From TrEMBL:
Keywords: Membrane, Transmembrane, Transmembrane helix. The chain crosses the membrane at residues 47-71, 78-95, 138-156, 168-186, 248-266, 278-296, 302-322, 334-357, 363-381. Gene3D superfamilies: MFS general substrate transporter like domains. It holds the Pfam family MFS_1. One of its GO terms (cellular component) is plasma membrane. It comes from the Bacteria. One of its GO terms (molecular function) is transmembrane transporter activity. Residues 14-389 form the Major facilitator superfamily (MFS) profile domain. The lineage of its organism: Bacteria, Pseudomonadati, Acidobacteriota, Terriglobia, Bryobacterales. This is MFS transporter.
Amino acid sequence: MASSWSRLRAGAITLTLFSLAHFLVDVYSGSLGVLQPFLVARYGLNLSQAGLIGGLLVFSSSVTQPIYGYLSDRYRSKLFSCLGPAVAGLFILGATMAPGYGALLALMMLGGAGVSAFHPQGSSWSTSGMRGDRGGWMAVFISAGTLGMALSPAFFKEVIQRIGVDHLVWAAVPGVLLSVVMLVIVRAPGETGPRKVRSFDWAALQAVRGPMTILYLGVFFRSAVQVTYGQFLILYLSRERHYSLSDAAYLVTLYLSFGAVGGFLGGHLAERFGAKRIIVHSFLWSVPCMAVFFLVPGPVGVASLILGGFILLFTIPVNVVVAQQLVPSQAATVSALLMGFAWGMAGMLFIPLTGWIADHASLHTALFGLLVFPALGFVLTRRLPEDIGR
């Protein structure tokens, strides 16, 4: 009994540490949305160049995640996840002191590497000591990150007002301190002897390539909206709807916060109603809600945007848990494919493309047009097996 309680306590401490780290990592990676107006003004950038910053950060922080997932599954070094908060904070926020546009891009890319290294191992190790309701525990970990991303605009708006952009790197201190604590406390799950180098199990991935492909494309379509809106909504609200920067930051924080709540709720709903049903209905109902935002100005449109974001993000923990159940031997790798690679490919493509369309038309047109992708996600994910995730 004492041994079971000790394991449960250790599992809860691990989940808490990784959830806090996920929160901070995503706070730092989400800072670019509120930093962009300052960077555009400081470096004299057009929207295409601003989009390139976002696309490069997404590439570094997300597209490269399968590499770190593979290395994590193979070597199981805690450095991948434990150093993530410190590296992300120091380099992403340090980019505000860059002497030029080239240095800014380089620092953003280095900061993104910390984000990328953290996520695959974090999603694999965070719930390893918990028992029962895997979707619910995964929802805690993932929602912590989504909440960090959500609070990032308002947090950095307040920090910038108090200490200025030039001193923003001081906000990396919590990440550095948490990295130190994790290096001391975190242990690899189930590690009782010398660490072994493990081979990569391609056969396990090949056996489930059909549903994994559908899950991947579903995340890609969702991320086309999620990541691009996170980068451009503040600019859109301030430039084309004439919100103050403060009001725009708080509105985007509210929108993303409801998305975090949606992700937490979605993980629990999937346990009760099934993964496929939650994924399909998330795509189905998010599109009309978010479309109202672009068609109806004022409070009704804003409320519809928030509701649409809430519904759209139901699927974040659901997709990851289903993928890990399909290929348990490569948990970090498949988590990276869905949490990082799909997100990153969508961001790399659609952030610069949205900036280019905005330069030639408007941000309204570019952002509204992205809603075609959740509609495609609805059509595609209906092909998932009925019993997937059960």
